[in-house]
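worker-3 :: picked DNA-3-methyladenine glycosylase I
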Amino acid sequence: MKSYSEIREMAVQRHGEDGLAAALPPPPDVPLRDLSDDRLLSEFSRRVFQAGFNWSVIDKKWPNFETAFHGFDIGRNALMSDDDLDAHLKNTDIVRHAGKILSIRDNAAFLSDLAREHGSAATYLGNWPVEDTVGLFDLLKKRGTRLGGMTGQYALRFAGYDALILSKSVVAALNMAGVLDGAATSKSAQRKAQEAFNTWHEESGDRYAVISRTLALSVPD
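worker-3 :: tokens ->
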């Protein structure tokens, strides 16, 4: 397996020191563990609606979503009725996708359950060990709705968790580095990726988000 310093040097060769530095993600303004649960539901829901859609359109409409879904209060949305769903499907101020609207209800129930179990869903998820991020991905896939795959990974990152991202470029870099031989969809492949990230984190002290971006920049676009 290539060392992180080798991978970083490849990224520098492609983009230069200044280019690499400019492309690295800054630390989150608010870490996930400090979010309120309604803000976490809002973030999860935004990423669900952006999946397969134009992100900027969703961003522009998001204030309308905040109004329609009562500030993403988890208790209220967990009790979304059929009449509520019908009203949402008639609301031209939002994107009217029944399955994704229902995911708000389901994920509100999921976060409500976590809050009952642990006091705060955001604190519980935010304190999940970064050394087992793929375990957190698995939790979102199993207990959440439409939070598997890249949607859950980006949702965690945008919510302020130091998540690794198994994007196409990152997976290509993991193959180049000798960590993987193919896709990163199986649990065993994701575990290998996690172990490599843990090693590189110990080597460099860099955040997992920075390691992800450095990997992505080490391979051709």
